[in-house]
Amino acid sequence: MRSVSLFMIICLFAISFAGKGQDNNLPKPDPTYEIGFDATGLLHQIINLGNQQAPESLYKITFKRHRGTWSFRSGIGFAVDNQTVSLDTINEPREENFYSMNFSIGTERKLISGERFGAYIGLDAFASDEFRKTISETRFDNFNGGNMITIITRDVISTRSTSFGLSPLLGLEFKFSDRIKLFTETHINYAKGKSFNGFDTTSRQDNQGVVTVTNNFTQTQNSKTSDLSVALPTSIFLAITF
């Protein structure tokens, strides 16, 4: 994966610098569109920061349309994870499911547009949705009167949160060329949303194939949320304009 990503970056640089070899007398329109990719993990591997985990970005892909000093911008991020782990080789299997989606749309204005360095401010409207479910089972074997009775306890924990809000931002960029650059941003996020938490536990007794439910308990909680936070510029994006 690392070699493929490095190959893509080399190709982007080759395309960028190849354009400089064209006839300079021909008019060159300013780049209008820009697409960016979260390169934090790749740069983390290249710099080789040891066992430190790379910061996670909410947005994996960004898109911008430039019109003079103003730009339209959007971003999207997603994550899906399904796995089964075992806390014990036999008695405690655990299944974990995770899903998240983040989307933003907004505008930005250039403050500094130098040959190598640039800065801009902007405002995003964003929405997010996140769901997580954990299913675990615990088995306990008990001998009673010569019969083996297995007690199985199944716990299901579900959480879901949705939010939307506004995010003023400040961005900094470093340009390798007219087409290739790196940028990072810091955001002040104000979000309102709602969250759901559910817990369900069921105990079953297996007596030589005869299964009976001995206990069942369900609890749910809904709440509204309001949050103000600052997102530091820990993610770095690689962008190409065309």
Q: Could you list some keywords that capture this structure?
A:
242 residues; mainly beta; 8-stranded antiparallel β-barrel; 67% strand; elongated; disordered N terminus
Chart the SSEs and their pairings.
Layout: H1 2-18, E1 33-38, H2 40-47, E2 61-67, E3 70-86, E4 93-113, E5 117-144, E6 147-175, E7 180-207, E8 210-231, E9 237-241
Antiparallel strand pairs: 1-2, 1-9, 2-3, 3-4, 4-5, 5-6, 6-7, 7-8, 7-9
Q: Give the topology string: H per helix, E per strand.
A: HEHEEEEEEEE
Strand content: over 45%
If you average the pLDDT, what whole number results? 83
Roughly how many Å apart are the termini? 26 Å
Shape call: elongated
Strand order of the largest sheet: 1-2-3-4-5-6-7-9
Task: Please compute the radius of gyration using only Cα atoms.
Answer: 26 Å
Number of strands: 9
Structural class of the helix and strand makeup? mainly beta
Query: How many separate domains make up the residues?
Result: 1
Per DSSP, the total helix count is 2
Helicity range of the residues?
Answer: 10-25%
Describe the main β-sheet briefly. Answer: 8 strands, antiparallel, barrel
- Low-confidence parts lasting 5 or more residues at pLDDT below 50? 1-10, 12-23
